[in-house]
Specification:
This protein is mainly beta. About 5% of the residues lie in helices and about 45% in strands. The protein contains 1 helix and 10 strands, in the order ββαββββββββ. It has a 4-stranded antiparallel beta sheet, covered by helices on one side. A 4-stranded antiparallel beta sheet has the order 7-8-9-10, with no helix packed on it. The chain is globular and about 55 Å long. The chain starts with a strand and ends in a 12-residue tail after the last strand. The model has no long low-confidence stretch (mean pLDDT about 85).
Length: about 110
């Protein structure tokens, strides 16, 4: 959504309208010129300057996205159903850590 501060009306943000149509955006994270949006089974990477959109999905191991985070080293972290994916800029190759293989206490956080 885009808020027009002059008219005070919400409208669809045109550059991302087609990519997010009929989808619930769960989380947005901005890091520099990049805006990352998590949807249920994919993550969109939108460059604010160039308006380029990249989609990461099942081919990268993304399913059931719970969280996205970009750290100070510009690594993108994506929480998914069975673990965590991470990639360094320019985010072309993701590595997966399977958290189901590790034993965690029920009252712990990870």
């Amino acid at each position: 959504l885009h808020l027009d501060t002059r008219t005070k009306k919400l409208t669809s943000f045109a550059p991302l309208h087609a990519a997010t149509k009929n989808a619930s955006v769960r989380q947005m994270v901005r890091h520099g010129d990049w805006l990352f949006l998590s949807l249920r089974a994919r993550v969109l990477q939108y460059n604010i300057s160039t308006r380029e959109i990249k989609t990461f999905g099942r081919a990268e191991g993304i399913d059931n996205v719970s969280h996205i985070y970009v750290d100070n080293a510009q690594r993108l972290w994506i929480g998914v159903k069975k673990g965590v994916l991470h990639a360094s800029a320019p985010y072309n190759k993701f590595e997966f850590t399977n958290l189901e293989e590790h034993k965690f206490r029920a009252d712990s956080a990870y």
